[in-house]
Amino acid sequence: MPNIAVLVKRVPDTNAQILVSGDRVDLSNVKWVMSPYDEYALEAAMMHKEAQGGVVTAITLGAPECDKVLKDAKAIGVDRIIRVWDDSWSELDSNQTQMALTSAVKEISAEVVYCGKSAADTGAGSTGPGVAERLDWASASNIIGLEFEDSGIEVIVPAASGNARTGISLPAVVSCDKGFCKPRKPNVKGIMMAKRAQVEVLAAEIPASGINIVSHTPPPQKAPGQTFDGATNVPAVVAALRNDANVI
Amino acid sequence: MSETVVIAETKQGMLHSVTAELVSAANALGSAPTVIIPGTSDSAAAAVAELAGVGRVIACVGDCFSTYDAASWAKAVDTCAPAGIVVCAASQNGKDLASRLAARRSISVVQDVVAIDGSTLTQPIFSGKAMQNIVLSGDAVISIRANTFAAVGEGDGAEVTVMNQSADIATAVREMIAKANERLDVAEADIIISGGRGMQDPVNFVDLERIADALGAAVGASRAAVDTWDEIPHSMQVGQTGKTVNPSLYIAVGISGAIQHLAGMRTSKYIVAINKDAEAPIFKHADYGIVSTWEEALPILESELKALLG
Ligand SMILES: Cc1cc2nc3c(=O)[nH]c(=O)nc-3n(C[C@H](O)[C@H](O)[C@H](O)COP(=O)(O)OP(=O)(O)OC[C@H]3O[C@@H](n4cnc5c(N)ncnc54)[C@H](O)[C@@H]3O)c2cc1C
Whose CA is closest to B293, among B304, B306, B281, B278? Predict the structure, then answer.
């Protein structure tokens, strides 16, 4: 029976206003949630267990306040919850993040890892394929379909000429887009279980960061636009797109 | 100054035009790059060699390139690519390959770079609600958003070396499921016209399609449109949980401009909004806003464009 891991991340709610104060974003007043794509990854992990048995472990990387997303995963029904962290860590780059998560995946001897296709904060999408490379495993990114088979899984991934139905032998890392499942909601029993659940905290060896974050800045402000009242102004806008903007 | 390497972007074996922008980004980092073409055809190699600002070209050929398999591509490309700062396209596969390659080399990957100023790289964070400015402390793999660097022009012709690579393919494509329609993908388009819940009925998207055809544009949609109507597939969705696009022109029709929609299209060079509600948030982000119903505005837009573009 497979040992199933799912990577989850705590991020600001996608509705949150993000302000820059000094040279860093100020996240002190935002509401935090599990990154939206991770909910699909979590659902995929639960579906895998329902199809083939096994144990589902949710893993996150972060300080103690990240326990909440693990408890949310626990309320959905995962078996184990693990947080990787060292108090000396800050502003981890992709290399450090992936090393830390990879060591947790090895620690629990997982055979399949599900994660979201990208996290709502960085939008990078580097973690799934990066962890796969470090484990020397196969990977599929941005899946929009998932079936379980005796010796592996079958996924659907978008490709240039359509969608590719692709077979993957395990072990593998699978990053999930939305569309192939509907994440379940926690029930009361799950929420009660989650309250009592213990978060296992793991340490990890990580390399030095390869980047220096110099600053965060607000997005470049565009010049204010023009608003026209009524459809009779459409020709004027078309003319402006042609003559001023040069885009048509 | 470290060496720069560009991984050319290909689409079904053909060179993608964003490659000329990647060369431009590598030049901005300070050197004429070695351009690696994964699984190239001769014509793609010749096309890259013709680009200005290219140091040399390595055509990386092998069976593993017949379909996209992240693990084998990374292995093969890693063998061909010299050490240095590696530049990829921030496309779906480009970002995936960038992550694999960086992990293979135990270096950082910096995705979605939109500006390079000396040694400072800028990338959007929180879906473009803030920018992160970083300096690399060593080699790294970076991916570049399309449409942010001017494409290089034609050069004197660089030398092409062919390297044969083999790597075991870890995934097996069993079947290609053709796209439901052959329309241009929003991720590929330089002009996009998107419809939202304000279109009221999915059949009304044909009005957007006719305008798209006149402009050579792709048709996109808001999440409300995708979630409400089965006829509008998720592949059309622009936004936080859809595609991030960076076209020259984005026309939003019957879209309110929720923060999660803006997350996917706010960097568009020009934004036009058509919405009947003058208070709709989209107008704050539009270069040209038209307060009107689409029923009134779209027929005029179509006839104006047809008159202009023939
Ligand atoms: C985690 C999360 C992720 C999300 N991801 C995305 C995403 O990727 N993409 C996305 O788009 N949304 C996303 N959303 C949803 C987003 O918050 C909005 O609900 C959605 O964008 C609204 O779509 P809409 O503008 O089409 O619909 P509405 O907000 O209902 O707006 C319809 C607009 O049409 C106008 N209208 C109505 N009739 C007409 C007419 N006849 N002519 C002209 N205008 C008319 C109205 O004035 C209104 O402004 C996400 C939300 C969450 C919580």
Answer: B278
**Pocket lining: B239 vs ligand 1, CB cutoff 6 Å:** yes
The alpha carbon of residue B25 and the mean position of all alpha carbons in its chain are separated, in whole angstroms, by 15
- Fold for the domain defined by B173-309: Rossmann fold (3.40.50)
Instruction: Kindly list the distances between the CA atom of residue B293 and the CA atoms of B211, B225, B226, B278, in Å, as whole numbers in the listed order.
Output: 16, 17, 20, 11
Residue of A nearest to B309 (CA): A248
CB–CB of B59/B160 below 8 Å? yes
Does CATH number 3.40.50.620 belong to domain B4-144? yes
Nearest by CB: A211 against B100, B136, B179: B136
Pocket test for ligand 1, best of A14, A178, A227, A228 (most atoms within 8 A of CB): A14
Q: Where are the domains of chain B?
A: 4-144, 173-309
Element at B23 (helix H, strand E): helix B19-28
Residue nearest to atom 48 of ligand 1 (CA): B256
In B, minimum Cα distance to A19 occurs at B130
Give pLDDT tens digits for B15-50. 999 999 999 999 999 899 999 999 877 888 999 999
| Per-residue pLDDT band at A229 (split at 50, 70, 90) | very high
* Equal fold, B4-144 vs B173-309: yes
Distance CA A139, CA B60 (A): 22
φ, ψ at B125 (rounded to 5°) = -130, 165
User: What is the rounded CA–CA span in Å between residue B298 and residue B272?
Assistant: 12
Q: How confident is the model at residue A151 (pLDDT cuts 50, 70, 90)?
A: confident
Question: A243 touching B, CB under 8 A?
Answer: no
